[in-house]
Amino acid sequence: MRSQQSPGLAAMLKLSVITCIYAFHTTTAIDIPLEVLGHVNIEQLPTITDQAPSSLIAFPFDESFPVTCEAKGNPEPEFQWKKNGEDFDPYLDPRLMKEENSGTFVIPNNGNLTEYQGTYRCYASNKLGTAISKEIEFIVPNVPKFPKEKLDPVEVEEGQPFILKCDPPTGVPPLQIYWMTINLQHIEQDERVSTGLNGDLYFSHAVEKDSRRDYCCYAAFPRIRTIVQKTAMSVNVKTRKGDRSESANAILERKPSLLTPPGDSSEKLLVKGEDLELECIPEGIPTPQVEWMKIGEQLPVKAKLENHRKLLIVPSAEQEDSGRYMCRAKNPLGEAVHYFTVRVE
């Protein structure tokens, strides 16, 4: 049995709710449920309640791609879209699937996705104002490919440094580089051999065991579940056939220099919150050791060293991480240094 309210009681309840809301509003903001707003007819600015991620990637194996935008407010918001800064109306495209009383539209995977590639932004408006979503980038990735090429063998004298170039194709980040053999065995890396941030494989000095015919650079793009392989590279280390005594080996010894970065100094500019990455890869015999310092200060507490101390990382850099950094590569015959001027804005 449904109970009935008298008109007087309903008015008293309405006044009570309004009074309670007004008293709370004088001290702090409050998010009022829509059912309450509708009952007491309180107006509210639009608020975005749900939206698509900032990067929406069109994987070829997905059937459709929802570009989500939901909002609340009183009166109920109306939705508009912009694509690449210009007005875009999903209702004018019969191929798109729309949802009633919603800003969401769905792009079907019908083979014509590239025309929808771009940056979208949703606007939810009522007479009180407009709520704006974050930018939503719809990405239709091309399958990255290494070019087909014939690579000449790398000929190097024992003890000399050399570099194997990867030159990975462009694709949807992040990019991960792996150096392996054709049989998918990882190339062993240490103080002497390491992969740089650019994907190249650096050798501080060549030894006989570096000779092989199947150095392969693999570029992995995890967001599109793709791995591509560069043409295998061959390395031939020319060994010294004569005296293998310590005196002969000593002739090969030399003080360090840097394979990367070039020159004595460089500048690094990044935005607050980005990771600071500084890299020094040396060559020399014996294999140089790398150490880091910040001029006039201690290294940031959150700093960490990777890639056998050749890479300094400061996660989520702040303005106080600005300054002058130095890497030093040392062996018994001498040292090489590089200065980085870092600015975090």
From TrEMBL:
InterPro entries: Ig-like_dom, Ig-like_dom_sf, Ig-like_fold, Ig_I-set, Ig_sub, Ig_sub2. Residues 1-23 form the signal peptide. Keywords: Disulfide bond, Repeat, Signal. Residues 46-137, 141-234, 256-345 form the Ig-like domain. It comes from Ameca splendens. Gene3D superfamilies: Immunoglobulins. This is Ig-like domain-containing protein.
